[in-house]
Amino acid sequence: MTTELQTERQGHTLVMRLNGPATRNALSPQVYAAGIELLNVAESNPDVRAVVLTGHGGHFCGGGDLQRLSQQRLHDLAGQGLHLDAFHQWIEALHSFPKPVIAAVEGVAAGGGMSLVLACDLVVAADNARFLSAYSQVGLSPDGGASWHLARAMGRSKALAQLWLGTPQTAQEWAAQGLVHQLCPAGEALAQALDLAEQLAEVPAGVVASIKELVNDAAQPLRTQLDAEKQHFLVNLGRPEAGAAIDAFLHKRASKG
């Protein structure tokens, strides 16, 4: 059966849940299209302050549907190219989405599922989570931006080893490399991701969007980055949220003095 992307609201957070337990929530073109549409709707809804992406049934995502890939490589390679375009559009949408996107990972995140985790802003992983590229084991190279994200996070040699060998890595190993923001006991990833999302909802939305854009663009030359920081700083300084927060801070400091 094809994986579905189910949704629910938890406070200010939109939860997107991959649901296809028969295939460990394998990815599909239907999921890509639904993911892009949901992000477009969430971006325009001020009540949604964050998105949490998770999987059903004790796993995050086992990656692509190998049965579908086996058929398409023989009969519809061009169609698979269109499916990859759609997957990459979803990856780009997650990367540029102006609100926090948090992955809540239990169990396996493999292949495209690992790429999906890497596209999120923060990762809350249960201590039973396992991350593996899996591509080379089935004669494939990575998709979904895995090579880009891993090279930036791990450095060239570690990224090559991860992608060439496909050795599973634990949540603890990913945390040591800065790829997991928060570890938790098995079964608690979603709850802790929702708590984190609510904390982020307290930060002004414009500030959240500015910080994400600046960090996404941080590879540009320093002078260009400094100019961008100046522009974002002045925009946020002019917003009422900054005025209220500065006044509250000054009042609190004066009351202590």
Description:
35% of the residues are buried. The strands form 2 sheets. The protein has a 6-stranded mixed β-sheet, with helices on both faces. α1 (29-43) links the parallel β2 and β3. The protein is globular and about 70 Å long. Helix content is 53%, strand content 16%. It has 11 helices and 9 strands. The protein has helices at 29-43, 66-75, 77-96, 112-119, 146-154, 156-165, 171-176, 189-201, 205-216, 222-237, 240-256; strands at residues 4-10, 13-19, 50-55, 101-105, 108-110, 122-126, 130-132, 169-170, 182-184. By secondary structure, it is α/β, with parallel strands linked by helices.
Cα(first) to Cα(last) distance is 65 Å
Lateral arrangement of strands in the main beta sheet: 1-2-3-4-6-9
Number of distinct beta strands: 9
Mean pLDDT: 93
The percent range for strand residues is 15-25%
Largest sheet: number of strands, sense, barrel closure: 6 strands, mixed
Overall geometric form: globular
